[in-house]
Protein: Alanyl-tRNA editing protein Aarsd1
Organism: Hondaea fermentalgiana
Amino acid sequence: MAPTPPYILACQNDSHLRELAGLEVVECKPTEGENAAGKDKDAGDTASFLVQLSDTVLFAEGGGQPSDTGALETPEQTVRVRHVERAEDGSVWHAVDVELPPGTKVTARVDWDRRRDHMAQHSGQHLITAVALRTIGYDTGSWSMGPYPQPSYLDLLGPKLTQEQIDQLERDVNDAILDDHAVTVRTYTSEELANLGDEVRFKERPSSEFPIRVVSIAALDDNMCCGTHVKRVSELQAVKLLKNDFLNKKQSQINRLQFVAGPRLLRCTGDLSTRSLALTAALGAAGDDQLDRVSQLQSASKKLQNEMKSVLTDLANLVGPNLVAQEEKEQSGIIVYHRREGSPQFMEALSKAIAAAASSEMRVFLTIGDETARGGGSGAFLLTGPAEGLDALNKVAIDTLGAKGGGKGKRFQGKIPEGSLTAKSLKEAHAGLREALKTISQ
C-alpha cells in the first residue's frame, strides 16, 4: 500500500480526528546515531525505529508547530509514538521503540490533549496575525510554539507597539473569537494557487509537486499552512497577549509578542491562581500588598546579609592570626581550614587576614559547605600561596573533592558539587595536599 501524499494526510484533512484504523506499515527502518532522525526534542532522547504508514492522524513537526505524540495499536501490542517528523521528500515518519514489519495493520491514536492545545495555539497565531495586519498594518515575520507552560510568540514587523496598541489588538482578537468565524482548509496545485494572485499569504510563492494547503479564517485570512487547526475560532475561547519583547535590529524592527490561547490559557490561569494562594499564605499578604511585602523582605534580607558579612569579616580577622600562629608552630607547609556555615566572602576575608598576619607568604587551603549533609553536601574551595607547585595542589583538591574550578599562579578556586563534600573527602583532601607537598618541597 502506497503512503498518502503529504499535506493531505488524515490529520490535515480533519484535525479533530483522534484515531484512524486500518492503516498499514509501509516501511520500518532503524534510527542511526544520537543525532539521527527520530529524536524527541521535548524528551531529549532517540527512538529505535522510524515507521512510515499508509496514512496518519499524527501531525509531523512543521510550520512552527511541534509534532503530535500518540500510539500505534496492533492486536498484540500498543506502541508509543514519541515524535513524528517530515523528511525532505515529504514522507512522514513515526519514531517508536518497537520494530513494526511492513504490512502490519495498525490503528493510530493521537494524544488529544496535546493536539487540542497545539491547534489552539496555531489557530490563535493565525487570528492574531490576521487582525494585526488589518488593524495596525503589521505583518508577521515568524512564530514559535513552546511546550506548556511556556507561551508561544509571534513576530510583528514594525515600530515598537505601545501598550495601548497591544491592549486594543487583544480586544480586537477576542472580539473576532466571539464572531465565531469558520476555519476551513483547501488544497491547490501550484498553478491554481498562482491564479489566485495576492489572495493567499505566503513568504515565498511555492512551486511543488505536492498539494498546497491553505487555511482560511472566513472574512479575515487565507494563509498557506501545513498545521492542524480548530474548525471555528470560538474553540479558542480566548487569547491573552502577555509580553512584548521589542527587537530593534539593523534590517528590521520586531515586536515579539508572547501569547496563550484556548485550554492553555485556562490552565495558566489555574496555575497562577494556585501560586497566588500559596504566596498569600507564605507572605501573609494578598493582592497588591504582596509587592510591598516582598519589598520589605528584600530590604530585611539585604540588611541581614550586610550584617552577616560584617560578622564573618570580624570572625576571619580573629581566626586568621590563630591559624598563622598554629602553622608557624607545626610547620606543616599549608594552612587548612573548613567552615560549614561559611561563604565565598568569608574565604576571601580569611585569606586576607592570614596574609596580613603572616610574616611570609603561606599556602592556604580553605573550604566551606555542609560536609554532614545526608548523601554529601556541596561547597567551594580557595587555594592560595606561592606559585611553585600550587597547580599540583589544585589538582589534588579537585580530584579528591570532585570539584570543578580553575585559576593560575598564586590562586585557584572551585565549586564542590552536591554529594561530593563529606567528612571523608575533606580528610582525604587535607592528607593528599600534605602528601603532595613532600614532592614539591624536595
Remarks:
- The domain at 10-110 is CATH 2.40.30.130 (Elongation Factor Tu (Ef-tu); domain 3).
- The CA atoms of residues 72 and 108 lie 5 Å apart.
